[in-house]
Design a protein that fits this description.
The complex is a heterodimer of chains A (329) and B (294). Chain A is an alpha+beta fold. In chain A, 22% of the residues lie in helices and 38% in strands. Chain A has helices at residues 92-103, 116-119, 186-192, 220-242, 301-328, and strands spanning 2-5, 13-15, 20-22, 32-35, 58-62, 69-71, 84-85, 123-152, 155-179, 201-202, 212-214, 248-277, 280-287, 293-294. In chain A, the strands form three sheets. In chain A, strands 5, 6, 7, 8, 9, 10, 11, 12, 13 and 14 form a ten-stranded mixed β-sheet that branches. Chain A has a two-stranded antiparallel ribbon with strand order 1-4. The relative contact order of chain A is 0.18. Chain B is α/β, with parallel strands linked by helices and 294 residues long. Chain B has a domain at 45-200 and 285-293: Diaminopimelate Epimerase, Chain A, domain 1. Chain B contains nine helices and seven strands. The longest helix of chain B has 20 residues, at 18-37. The relative contact order of chain B is 0.13. The chains are: A alpha+beta (329), B alpha/beta (294). At the A-B interface, strand 8, strand 9, helix 3, helix 4 and strand 14 of A face helix 1, helix 2, helix 9 and strand 5 of B.
Amino acid sequence: MIFKCRNCGGNVVYSPEKHGMFCPFCESEGSQERQEAQSGGLTVCPNCGGEVPVEAHTSATQCPYCDSYLIFNERVEGNYTPKMMIPFQLGKETCKQSLREKFGKFRFAPTDFLSEARLNSMLGIYVPYWFYDYDTGCYFQGEGIKVRSWRSGNTEYTETSYYAVSRSMDITFQKIPVDASEQMPDDVMDLIAPFDYGQMIAFSPEYMSGFYGEKYNMGSDVVENRANAMMKADAVKLLKDSYGGYSSVKTMRQDVTVRECKAVYGLLPVWKYIYRYKEQEYPFYVNGQTGKIVGTVPISAAKVWGYTATLWACLTAILALVNILLGSL
Amino acid sequence: METDFKKEARKQYLHYFRIWFLIIGVLAILCIVLRFTKFMNQEAPAERVYDYADVLTEEEEEKLRAHIAQKEQQAQIHIVLVTIDLPVEGAEARERYGYRYTDWERNMQDIADDFWDEKRYGYNKGFEGDGVLLLHNWYPEQNGEHLATSGKVERAFSVHDIDRVLYAVDAYYETDPYRAYMAYVDEVCDLLERHSTMPFPWAIVLVVPFVVAGIYAAFNLKQQKAKNTTAVNAYVAGGKPELKGKTDEFLRKSVVTRRIETHSSSSGGHHSSGGGGHHRSSSGASHGGGSHRH
């Protein structure tokens, strides 16, 4: 499918800044009209008929010939229909600005790292996620120790009290996100969280126009272990928080029992910027809702040596000149 | 494209170090200006060798003057030699020559200081200016030298340094006075160069920037990694768990006592060191110096 402008026929895209559909050609808002591909299958652009390179899990992309944004019905419908999504809240310009603010003062980055030309290659991607709900029963049993010290005259007293500690609680976890994309690095996708679920809405393909997208390519059963590990780690922390106040607590029994587990498929917005430097790729990911950035800046060895050596030379010169100046007074 | 980035890199580099380059430029100009406009003492006579005891030949005096002139340029101090053949000790000498004291050392000091002050010696100024004067008395039974220092030489030379200069003279004066006075000039200049009057040693000038540059590189290479900012209750319905049961049952108690040892200690002893060798001449100028009597 493609969204076209009723007024000018141009490709209408979702604008995070305007929070709505926008035609960049005639600047009209809300003028979108859904147009389905006539024939030719996935690889033919419904707008210009050009051959579009489509990867195995791509659900939305841009035609390399007419620059129209295409959404593939087969990959957003049926089994692949996301139940929910958070539309992009940050546009490309805002993300570029965030990257410049965060890394602008990093002196040893290559000169073109934050150049307009490089940053323009940034892509907005709807990443497939599984959201897990868990209904759990958590139990803790242990021995708590409280230590108290005081001094009387020349004697120091240390009193150690022992307690039998137990806690029982029900914890309902909602929407623990785990990315369902083989391409996206799991650790980065975990770091890019959290997302504000207050802006979560039911899926609508309109929001994908103007962005790239992927359908899930890892089943909910495949990635459930990651959600389960996150859930258990949080449950243990919450149990621990509940028995604070002791000097130390020895665990004797700890159980997290899952009574019910449910997974729902959805999409989350992520900006991706890949910087290539000396034959190596340096990916940066920006949370398309909150602006949180994950990535490591490449280091230019020439800059490290150049700047450090110059600083050394400047300091030496200044100290030497001051020495000569004061010495001759 | 590549050229544009190189241009941009150069621009960023110059922008970043502009203040540093500016400071270096200003300091360099100041150094040059100071070098050429440094106040030169015009009051002092051109003569540096006063051989009243007549221990040097005319030729030796000329060679010594030339040597002093060359060394003065390098060290930027006045170097004066005075030889005398006068009694400077005892009541008779005091009465005859109007000395302030009867002892040899103090009178030698007075003569040297007064000679320096009256002639208005000093490389940079005529009062407390930079320089050194060797007074050698050849009078029988009262033979000895006094080295008077002033200005930056006074500040730089310790008692030990003054002794070294005098020993350099002592080594040759009996056999070859000319060689002894040449040794005086060389020793003064060598010592002065060694005790550079710079505010901090050159080792600091080289080491401190090296350390600072290292810290700068390490600090700028450090990157702030993204952290997990997801709160522990971020995915918990209602933001908190539902507590179903809670027990904190007291089991037992134990008390341990420990006697605290108290110590009183004292340490101490003061070391004091004092400087010396500095005094004021009759004209009020500050001098340093020391004598060797043979």
